[in-house]
């Protein structure tokens, strides 16, 4: 489906540059904790590396990275190679960091992964694993919106033009038979692109009637009196869809496969620990959030947010492919060639060593 020149240019700029409307990322910020595992005596550097630089968002949908950092799983797996961390608030800034070599591996959402891959002609990144499913909700003002049909004519926020939640909301709007101009956000519903950090205040002030947002923003809105009208997971097969995956620089993957495998092993171990220790994992994630953002989440926000997210090693590749098609339908993306966006061989090696089945790349794997 063709997209207008203006929309293509908008998406290209988004993929290449940090999002100016969002708060600056905590790029290069270090997160240290006495709870982090110490390097074992006699441990050796992996692939001769002094460090592996890992990026993620200060967001509960990046639970694997938060807990893996806080509990020292990554450092343990990397031995004498130091695990360094950088936090981000926006996908484009993390993609830029990956492109520039400022980070090696990152936790990030599907839309920036797709944008970064297609913008580079398939040359700058690979998705190497899954991390989380779910954690996205349409929260509304219950006094103004009592049913789905009441959303028509209202002002609904999404985090960013063309981001994962924006694409999902535009697709949902189209499925209701309503029309919205994707670039301007004007139409049968007014889409307001709003930084997740300011959306709760805008809702409280009455300038928004609702928002299609990830956690913990959704639960923050509920704490302000909002009501969950729709959980996005109910729109997907088996109620699973990718919200966070793991990407790596292709150059780093080729040159340092043992380091990549070590990080994936740590990710798998972290997810296993989170599932076995949900309350302790939630507390660990909140401690890391406080270190990364300066503020822990209150229980009334953290508890429902944590409950709505499922950590997973499976990248749920078929759902990423569907999300790309939704962006095409919305006019935000030309038909992409995603062949090669995944390389799940290192992850499947790790899973195989544990006697677990391989995960699928939906036919989009590297040859």
Question: How does this structure look, described?
Answer:
There is one protein chain. The chain is an alpha/beta fold and 367 residues long. The protein has helices at 5-16, 63-70, 73-78, 91-100, 110-119, 164-175, 199-205, 217-223, 250-255, 257-276, 278-293, 299-307, 317-329, 345-353, and strands spanning 51-57, 82-88, 105-108, 125-134, 136-140, 155-158, 190-193, 210-214, 227-231, 242-249, 309-311. Strands 2-1-3-10-4-11 form a six-stranded mixed β-sheet, sandwiched between helices. A five-stranded mixed β-sheet has the order 7-6-8-5-9. α6 (164-175) links the parallel β6 and β7 (190-193). α2 (63-70) packs across α10 (257-276) and α10 crosses α11. The longest helix has 20 residues, at 257-276. It is globular, with a radius of gyration of 20 Å. The two termini are 27 Å apart. Residues 1-36 have low confidence and may be disordered.
Provide key terms for this protein.
6-stranded mixed sheet; disordered N terminus; 367 residues; 5-stranded mixed sheet; alpha/beta
Number of strands: 11
pLDDT averaged over residues: 90
Q: What percentage of the residues does DSSP assign to strands (E)?
A: 15-25%
Please identify the oligomeric state.
single chain
Instruction: Choose one word for the global shape.
Output: globular
Give me the secondary-structure category: alpha/beta
Give the distance, in angstroms, between the N- and C-terminal Cα atoms: 27 Å
Q: Main beta sheet: strand number and arrangement?
A: 6 strands, mixed
What radius of gyration results from the CA coordinates?
Answer: 20 Å
């Amino acid at each position: 489906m063709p997209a207008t020149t203006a929309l293509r240019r908008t998406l290209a700029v988004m993929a290449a540059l940090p999002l100016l409307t969002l708060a600056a990322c905590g790029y290069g910020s270090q997160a240290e904790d006495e709870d982090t595992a110490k390097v074992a005596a006699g441990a050796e550097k992996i692939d001769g590396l002094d460090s592996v630089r890992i990026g993620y968002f200060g967001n509960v949908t990046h639970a694997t990275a938060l807990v893996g950092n806080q509990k020292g799983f990554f450092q343990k797996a990397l031995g004498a190679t130091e695990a360094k961390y950088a936090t981000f608030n926006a996908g484009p800034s993390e993609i830029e960091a990956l492109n520039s070599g400022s980070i090696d591996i990152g936790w990030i959402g599907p839309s920036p992964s797709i944008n970064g891959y297609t913008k580079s002609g398939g040359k700058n990144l690979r998705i190497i694993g899954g991390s989380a499913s779910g954690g996205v909700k349409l929260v509304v003002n219950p006094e103004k919106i009592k049913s789905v049909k009441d959303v028509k004519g209202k002002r609904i926020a999404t985090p960013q033009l063309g981001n994962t939640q924006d694409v999902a909301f535009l697709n949902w709007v189209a499925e209701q038979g309503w029309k919205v101009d994707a670039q301007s956000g004007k139409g049968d519903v007014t889409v307001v692109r709003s930084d997740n950090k300011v959306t709760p205040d805008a809702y409280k002030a009455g300038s928004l009637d609702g928002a299609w947002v990830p956690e913990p923003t959704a639960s923050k809105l509920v704490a302000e009196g909002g009501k969950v009208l729709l959980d996005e997971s109910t729109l997907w097969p088996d109620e699973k869809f990718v919200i966070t995956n793991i990407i790596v620089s292709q150059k780093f993957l080729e040159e340092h496969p043992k380091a990549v495998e070590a990080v994936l092993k740590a990710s798998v171990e972290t997810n296993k620990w989170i599932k076995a220790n949900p309350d302790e994992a939630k507390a660990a994630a909140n401690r890391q959030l406080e270190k990364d953002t300066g503020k822990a989440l209150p229980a009334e926000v953290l508890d429902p947010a944590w409950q709505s997210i499922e950590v997973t090693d499976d990248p749920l590749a078929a759902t990423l492919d569907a999300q790309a098609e939704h962006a095409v339908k919305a006019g935000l993306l030309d038909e992409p060639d995603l062949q090669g966006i995944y390389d799940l061989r290192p992850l499947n090696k790790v899973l195989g060593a544990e006697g677990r089945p391989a995960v699928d790349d939906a036919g989009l794997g590297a040859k």
